[in-house]
Amino acid sequence: MAADEADGDEGTERFDDPATVVRRWHRQMDFADLVAVCQGFIAGATRLVPKLRGREFTERQHEQVGNVLEKLRATAHWIETAVATGQTDLDEALAQLLRGE
Pfam families, per this entry (predicted)? Predict the structure, then answer.
């Protein structure tokens, strides 16, 4: 006996609520967008960093890159936390960092 016959579901079709389908689709698109943003950064860095070989940077340029990398690390940590816990709140310290304060 087939599983659907045992459950009494013979001949019935599965119906998902349209709102549920749309919410699921939006979640999948958000996930795809998140991965694309991360992959875009990786692709850009992979293309650009090798071009920097032998270049000398001013102290100000070192400082600017350091500031941006600090924001990047904090943002990556925020993403990790959001994925692991579902908490997407932007705490005030991160908000200030991202604003450059």
Answer: DUF6192
